[in-house]
Request: fold
Amino acid sequence: MIRIHSLCKSYRSGTEAPAVILQNVEFQVARGEFAAITGPSGSGKTTLLNIIGALDNDYDGSVAINGQDMRSLNDRRLSEFRNQTVGFVFQHSNLLAPLTARENVLLPGYFARKGENEAALNARADQLLERVGLGAKGHHLPSQLSGGERQRVAIARALLCNPPLILCDEPTGNLDSATGTAIIRLFQELQAEANLTLIVVTHDDRVSGAAKRILRLENHRVVEG
Reply:
């Protein structure tokens, strides 16, 4: 599903020499794989995830998803790709405070171009909230939810448009041990049920231990863990 070839990424600040973040990165991820990206802080894990998710297209090399070269897409097509192909789960859940859990889950549906009517989207949001164990809390605001519950809402939101690819950046980073373990178990169940391709950036040994494959960033390159 994902093919990365000769990927290079550098940052330039003023007149200083470019700081190399990624250099000649090469790897593939098959459909349905659960892969963890690990490595020390500052090694480029989040940068790599953003490139895979088409949030960053300022790089050299080739990134292809489902055979589609990301560099060949214009801004409109990239937006459609992010909405229909990728679900994002971030460390801080990134829920909108004035919206209820259900309204947060529905957000991707407002931008989708899949012809689904409002009733169908509402039904799917309710189904997903039920699936992540929050069926009774759809009308709660984020401030009324625990950290683990907010992360479950973020997972439901990521799944709303049935994306085949889920990208997660430190999804257990702000959670206590028990809650983090529950989130990992949920990811495993969802990935197996829907044959999702799941890529998780993590420092958490429990997450990397649950993954079927570990991609470790060392010296700006990806090596198998």
The mean pLDDT is 91.
